[in-house]
Amino acid sequence: MTFQSIGRPSVEVVIVQDAKAGGELIARGIADLLRRKPGALLGVATGSTPLPVYEALTAQVRAGDVDVSRARIAQLDEYVGLPAGHPESYRSVVLREVVEPLGLSPDSFMGPDGSAEDVQAACEAYDAALAAAGGVDLQLLGIGTDGHIGFNEPCSSLASRTRIKTLTERTRVDNARFFGGDIAQVPHHVITQGIGTILEARHLVLLATGEGKAEAVAATVEGPVAAVCPASALQLHPHATVVVDEAAASKLKLADYFRHTYANKPAWQGL
C-alpha cells in the first residue's frame, strides 16, 4: 500500500481488528513511503500505542523487505527537566524503541533539548530545525484520553508552534505507569510540537487502541474542530489517517460508513 493524498477526504478512518493489525497496516505504509523516498523524515510518538508499528516495521527490516538506512527520525515531544540519559526521557525512549531496533545511527535522530537552560530558545530552535530538514513526511500520533496530541492539552491553540506546556493532572496520572506508578516522578512541563507545527507534516497518521480512547476518537473525527479536543485539528489537514481498533471505534456513529468506504476505496489510492 502507499500513503497518497489524491482524491481523499481530509480524515480517513480505518477500523482494524486489533492493535497488531493496526501496527502492521501503518508499518506497511511507512515502508511504501521509504521505497518512494528513502530519506524520508519520520515523526515518531512515544507511549505504548505506537509500539506495534515499530515492531512490525522492525520485522520488515530484518526480513529484508525495506531499507531504512537513509530514513531520518524526528521526536514529537520531550519532558522538561529530566537529566540527560534518564530512561524515561523521550529521547531515550525513541532511541531504545525506534532508532536502535531499526539499526539506524543516532545521527539520524533529531529532537528538542528538554534539559536546556533556555527552554524557550530550545523550542524555537527545534521548530526551525524541522523546517530546515525539509519538514516531516509522515507524523505518527497517539491520542490522549482527553483528545490531546503530542502534549497539546485541551484548549491549546490550533496554530501553536513548538513550545513549553504544563501537563494536566489527568495526563500525569496516565503517564505515571512509565515512572513506576509514582506520579510525583512525572514532570510537570514538556516541550511539544505545537498543533500548527504538527499540521505541517505531509501525512498525519493517528493510531488509537482500546475502549478508553473511544470518546476521544469520536470527538476527533465526528465532532467539531475545537481546541477543547486538540486532535480534532486533523480535520483541517489534507492527508490525515486515523487507524483504530474495534474498541477505540466503539463510539463512532459512522463506523459502518467508515468500514464501507475503506472496503470499497480504489486500490490505486492506498492508505
TrEMBL record:
Catalytic activity: alpha-D-glucosamine 6-phosphate + H2O = beta-D-fructose 6-phosphate + NH4(+)
Pfam family, one: Glucosamine_iso
Catalytic activity, EC: 3.5.99.6
InterPro entries: Glc/Gal-6P_isomerase, Glucosamine6P_isomerase, Glucosamine6P_isomerase_CS, NagB/RpiA_transferase-like
GO CC term (a single one): cytoplasm
Activity regulation info: Allosterically activated by N-acetylglucosamine 6-phosphate (GlcNAc6P).
Keyword Hydrolase applies: yes
One GO BP: carbohydrate metabolic process
Gene Ontology molecular function, alphabetical: glucosamine-6-phosphate deaminase activity; identical protein binding
SUPFAM superfamilies cross-referenced by the UniProt entry: NagB/RpiA/CoA transferase-like
Limits of the Glucosamine/galactosamine-6-phosphate isomerase domain: 20-235
Record-annotated active site: D77, D146, H148, E153
Keywords: Allosteric enzyme, Carbohydrate metabolism, Hydrolase
Record-annotated site: Part of the allosteric site: S156, R163, K165, T166
Pathway membership: Amino-sugar metabolism; N-acetylneuraminate degradation; D-fructose 6-phosphate from N-acetylneuraminate: step 5/5
PANTHER family cross-referenced by the UniProt entry: GLUCOSAMINE-6-PHOSPHATE ISOMERASE
Its job: Catalyzes the reversible isomerization-deamination of glucosamine 6-phosphate (GlcN6P) to form fructose 6-phosphate (Fru6P) and ammonium ion.
Similarity annotation: Belongs to the glucosamine/galactosamine-6-phosphate isomerase family. NagB subfamily.
Name recorded for this polypeptide: Glucosamine-6-phosphate deaminase
